[in-house]
Amino acid sequence: MSVPSKRSMSSSDKTQATAPDDPAKPILVNGTWPEEWKDDPENRGANIARALADIERRSAYWESLGVPCARVSADKSKLVPIQYPNPDPLSLKQTGDRLDTQYITLTRKSLPGQHNESTCYVIKDGEEVGVDYVIVPKEEVAAREAQGWEV
Question: How far apart are CA 116 and CA 14, in angstroms?
Answer without folding.
Answer: 38
